[in-house]
């Protein structure tokens, strides 16, 4: 996983631990270096003391005394007298052990043969004698080095154990500090980010509300303690609260203006009914009792009548939709869907004698809770579409299935030409209709299916369509066990 996709919490913890680790390792490293330097200096000091002491003792007595001058087990003492071949001893736990010729050569090469020849004063060198590493120093023996040169070497393992003894606790403390920093960072950062999580929770709760329709309440706010403007999270919290406040008032304004438009449409449709009825009436009277009218005038009056009729159904549909939008409660009674379909199909049969009608309902009556008149409108519209938008001879089947899983399915199927493809996506939208001249002459408004949709939604059901040339099926699904007070969802 890429670092930038980590949570803020993990990132902050990782960064803190890294920072503490780098700092501690740096400080620890510097400390280790300084400690090591001082230990080496101390070691060399002791070595210098040893070589001086032994050199003096050699000069005065010609002997190397064991157990003196800081000669510890493992110390190598090699003497290069001017008058004889070199001799060396290694001090063990108890005794001095004579160095072999080979070991002596190693001492010589490690300590530097130049110095041995010239008898130069002490300088420190590191080298291997056998398996161990030694630090050597030399000293002249006798006045002006006249007796020879002395070499003393101590195993560095002594030094290393001492250094390790000091540095091990330092390393342990560094590791402990890193672990502790990680734990503390996790704790503190977790706490510091908790308000951010609360703010996020409020935001996602609000986002899950259905804001697009109706009277929306936004009860959710970031709690007081997370809106302190002196903290960053508090600023986010109070910004979110301000946003929610303005969204709330925007929604109220939207709701008010929607209501205004709905009321206006309902009022306007209602007001238009009376003059429309008059126009139809006068047109009819003129046509019937107008005396000898020319064919042209008769035709025109017929057009006035049919257009007035079309406008009447448009106004009726608009009024129904506006009322559906505005009404919150449906009048709910037990509705016998089987009976309702029988009525709808027999009406359709009377109106469309040039179509074939078939009804297929179960033996038992199917009862749903709802508004009988509006449910009737649903099936009247679907059946009218199957009659009006299909050619003569089309077969229309209305089926009602047995209720299952708390739902009942009603289908209106025809074998007509199908719904034009470009209509299908917004078929249930308002004023969506096929533009055939036949549809126009039959009073097509494009509101039929949007009424179907609104009524079915108000009954907590669904309506869907499947259409291809030769079969068009509208399926209405309604809950059989309708809750006592069916609430109409808020209109868009
Ligand atoms: N059974 C059907 N067969 C063919 N086309 C249909 C059918 N039902 C609906 N349509 C198409 O869908 C459009 C929208 O239907 P609708 O909303 O009832 O409006 P309207 O019937 O007033 O035109 C219709 O204009 C028609 O083109
Ligand atoms: Mg229609």
UniProtKB/TrEMBL annotation:
<keyword id="KW-0597">Phosphoprotein</keyword>
<dbReference type="InterPro" id="IPR036097">
    <property type="entry name" value="HisK_dim/P_sf"/>
</dbReference>
<dbReference type="InterPro" id="IPR003661">
    <property type="entry name" value="HisK_dim/P_dom"/>
</dbReference>
<dbReference type="InterPro" id="IPR003594">
    <property type="entry name" value="HATPase_dom"/>
</dbReference>
<dbReference type="Pfam" id="PF02518">
    <property type="entry name" value="HATPase_c"/>
</dbReference>
<keyword id="KW-0472">Membrane</keyword>
<feature type="transmembrane region" description="Helical">
    <location>
        <begin position="12"/>
        <end position="35"/>
    </location>
</feature>
<dbReference type="GO" id="GO:0005509">
    <property type="term" value="F:calcium ion binding"/>
</dbReference>
<dbReference type="Pfam" id="PF00672">
    <property type="entry name" value="HAMP"/>
</dbReference>
<protein>
    <recommendedName>
        <fullName>histidine kinase</fullName>
        <ecNumber>2.7.13.3</ecNumber>
    </recommendedName>
</protein>
<dbReference type="InterPro" id="IPR036890">
    <property type="entry name" value="HATPase_C_sf"/>
</dbReference>
<dbReference type="InterPro" id="IPR005467">
    <property type="entry name" value="His_kinase_dom"/>
</dbReference>
<keyword id="KW-1133">Transmembrane helix</keyword>
<dbReference type="InterPro" id="IPR004358">
    <property type="entry name" value="Sig_transdc_His_kin-like_C"/>
</dbReference>
<feature type="domain" description="HAMP">
    <location>
        <begin position="190"/>
        <end position="252"/>
    </location>
</feature>
<keyword id="KW-0902">Two-component regulatory system</keyword>
<dbReference type="InterPro" id="IPR003660">
    <property type="entry name" value="HAMP_dom"/>
</dbReference>
<feature type="transmembrane region" description="Helical">
    <location>
        <begin position="163"/>
        <end position="189"/>
    </location>
</feature>
<feature type="domain" description="Histidine kinase">
    <location>
        <begin position="267"/>
        <end position="482"/>
    </location>
</feature>
<keyword id="KW-0808">Transferase</keyword>
<keyword id="KW-0812">Transmembrane</keyword>
<dbReference type="GO" id="GO:0005886">
    <property type="term" value="C:plasma membrane"/>
</dbReference>
<keyword id="KW-0418">Kinase</keyword>
<dbReference type="InterPro" id="IPR050428">
    <property type="entry name" value="TCS_sensor_his_kinase"/>
</dbReference>
<dbReference type="GO" id="GO:0000155">
    <property type="term" value="F:phosphorelay sensor kinase activity"/>
</dbReference>
<dbReference type="Pfam" id="PF00512">
    <property type="entry name" value="HisKA"/>
</dbReference>
């Amino acid at each position: 996983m890429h670092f930038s996709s980590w949570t803020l919490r993990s990132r902050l913890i990782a960064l803190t631990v890294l920072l503490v680790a780098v700092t501690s390792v740096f400080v620890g490293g510097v400390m280790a270096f300084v400690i090591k330097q001082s230990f080496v200096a101390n070691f060399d000091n002791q070595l210098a003391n040893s070589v001086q002491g032994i050199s003096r003792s050699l000069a005065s007595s010609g002997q190397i005394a064991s157990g003196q001058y800081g000669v510890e087990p493992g110390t190598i003492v090699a003497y290069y007298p001017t008058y004889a071949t070199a001799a060396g001893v290694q001090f063990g736990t108890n005794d001095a052990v004579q160095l072999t010729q080979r070991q002596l050569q190693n001492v010589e090469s490690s300590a530097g043969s130049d110095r041995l020849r010239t008898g130069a004063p002490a300088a420190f060198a590191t080298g291997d004698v056998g398996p161990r590493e030694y630090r050597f120093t030399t000293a002249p023996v006798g006045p002006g080095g006249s007796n020879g040169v002395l070499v003393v070497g101590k195993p560095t393992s002594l030094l290393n154990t001492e250094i390790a003894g000091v540095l091990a606790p330092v390393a342990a403390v560094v590791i402990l500090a890193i672990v502790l920093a990680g734990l503390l960072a996790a704790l503190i950062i977790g706490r510091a980010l908790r308000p951010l999580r609360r703010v996020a929770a409020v935001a996602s709760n609000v986002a899950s509300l259905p804001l697009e329709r109706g009277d929306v309440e936004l009860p959710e706010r970031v709690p007081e303690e997370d809106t302190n403007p002196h903290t960053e999270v508090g600023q986010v919290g109070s910004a979110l609260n301000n946003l929610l406040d303005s969204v709330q008032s925007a929604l109220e304004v939207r709701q008010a203006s929607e209501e205004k438009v709905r009321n206006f449409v309902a009022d306007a449709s209602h007001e238009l009914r009376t003059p429309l009825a008059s126009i139809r009436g006068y047109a009819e009277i003129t046509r019937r009792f107008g005396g000898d009218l020319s064919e042209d005038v008769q035709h025109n009056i017929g057009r006035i009548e049919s257009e007035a009729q079309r406008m009447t159904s448009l106004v009726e549909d608009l009024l129904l939709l506006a009322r559906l939008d505005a009404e919150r409660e449906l009048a709910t009674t037990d509705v016998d869907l089987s009976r309702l379909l029988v009525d709808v199909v027999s009406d359709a049969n009377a109106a469309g004698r040039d179509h074939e009608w078939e009804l297929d309902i179960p033996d038992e009556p199917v009862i749903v809770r709802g508004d009988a008149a509006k449910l009737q409108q649903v099936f009247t519209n679907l059946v009218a579409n199957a009659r009006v938008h299909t050619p003569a001879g089309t077969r229309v089947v209305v089926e009602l299935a047995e209720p299952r899983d708390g739902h009942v399915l009603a289908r209106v199927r025809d074998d007509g030409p199908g719904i034009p493809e470009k209509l299908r996506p917004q078929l249930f939208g308002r004023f969506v209709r096929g533009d055939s001249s036949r549809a126009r002459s039959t009073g097509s408004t494009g509101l039929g299916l949007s009424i179907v949709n609104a009524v079915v939604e108000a009954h907590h059901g669904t309506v869907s369509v499947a259409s291809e040339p030769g079969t068009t099926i509208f399926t209405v699904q309604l809950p059989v066990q309708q809750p006592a007070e069916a609430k109409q969802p808020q209109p868009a």
